[in-house]
Amino acid sequence: MARVKKQQKRTGSILLSRHRTASGIDSASVVTHPRFATTSALSSKAGRTVIRKHHTLQKRLSQAQAKNDVEAARTVQAEIEENGGLEKYQRASICGQSSQRGGDSSKILIEWIGEIQRSASRAKSGSSGTTTDHTIEQRLKLLEVGALSPDNACSKSPMFDVRRIDLSSRHPSIETQDFMERPLPKQGDEKFDIISLSLVLNYVPLPTGRGAMLRRTTKFLRHRPLDQADSPLAGSFPSVFLVLPAPCITNSRYLNEDRLAEIMNCLGYALIRSKLSAKLSYQLWRLNGDTKRGVFKKEEVNPGKSRNNFAIVLE
Ligand SMILES: C[S@@+](CC[C@H](N)C(=O)[O-])C[C@H]1O[C@@H](n2cnc3c(N)ncnc32)[C@H](O)[C@@H]1O
Questions:
Q1: Is 166 annotated in some ligand binding site?
Q2: I want to staple 247 with a disulfide (CB 3.0 to 4.6 A). Which of 118, 162, 251, 259 is the partner?
Q3: Strands laid side by side in the 280-287 sheet
Q4: Whole-angstrom Cα distance, residue 220 to residue 238?
Q5: Is there an atom of ligand 1 within 6 Å of 146 CB?
Q6: ipTM of this model?
Q7: Peptide bond into 238 cis (omega under 30)
Q8: What's the predicted TM-score (pTM) here?
Q9: 279-312 per-position pLDDT tens digit
C-alpha cells in the first residue's frame, strides 16, 4: 500500500514538470508513460473543487517559479500532488464533459461547420438556380490540444481527421505532448485546418503563457484549396476553436470580448462564429492574415471588486 502511494506521488511530479513546460517557465522535457486510468465519477461539486484548486495551485507554482523561489515552489508542488495532480484534474474534467454536466464542447464545432456548409449551399443554389449538395471533399485536419478522450463528437464525426495531444495522455490515440514544445511544421502537410483549444488556454497559469499559446497556433494552420471560392468552407478555415469558461470573458478585470478581439485580430484572426452559454464561451476564429508584433499588457478593461483576474498578455 505504502509503495503504491509513493508511486502515485512520483507520477504526479512528472506531470507537473510537463505542466511547467507548458507555461514556458521550465523547459525540462519529460515524457510520461501513457496513463489509461479508468474514470471513476466525481460528484459535480467535488469535481469543480478539484478543478478550481488545481488551477489556483498551478498559478501559485508559476508565481513561485517566476520569482525563483525554490522552497515555495516545492511546497506548492507537494500540495498539487496532495490534491491528486493532473490525473485527478483530468478525471474531474472528463466528468464535466458528460452530457449531464454541460456536455462535449466539440458538438458546437460540428454544429457550426454544418451551418457553414448549409449556408454555402443555399448561396450557391441561389446564384446558379440549382440545388447543390455540398459535402466536404477532404476531411478537415484537426489538432485537438488538451484531448481527454478519443470518444468526443469530433472524434466520431467523419468530417475530421483528428490528431490528439495532451500534457499527459490517457489513451493510446492521444500523444503525450506539450503544444508549446511541438516541433514547428516544416511543410504544409504537417499543418492543420483547425486547432481546438477547448478549456486549455485557461489551464495555462500565466497571462504571458496564454498569449504565447495563441500566437503559436498561427504557425500550425494552413491555407489550402479549401479556401477557394467554390468550397463550402471558403471563408471559414483555417481556424481556431476556442472554448473558455464564460467568466474569463464576461467577468474579468482584464479581458472582455473587445479586448480578446483586439488580441486575436493582432494575431491575424477574425471572429466568424461565437456562442455564450451560462458556463462557457465558444468561438471560432479564422486566420486571415499575418501575425503582427503587437503588444498587449495586463490592463484593466472592466474594473470591479467582484471580478476575476483572467488575462491574456501578448509580448
Ligand atoms: C480542462 S482539460 C480540457 C479537456 C477538453 N479539451 C475539454 O474541452 O473538456 C485541459 C487539458 O489541457 C491540457 N493542456 C494544458 N496545456 C497544454 C499544452 N500546452 N499542451 C497540451 N495539452 C495541454 C491539460 O493537460 C488538460 O488535460
A1: yes
A2: 251
A3: 174-176, 160-166, 140-145, 194-198, 239-245, 280-287, 269-276
A4: 10
A5: yes
A6: 0.99
A7: yes
A8: 0.81
A9: 999 999 999 987 888 899 999 999 999 999 999 9
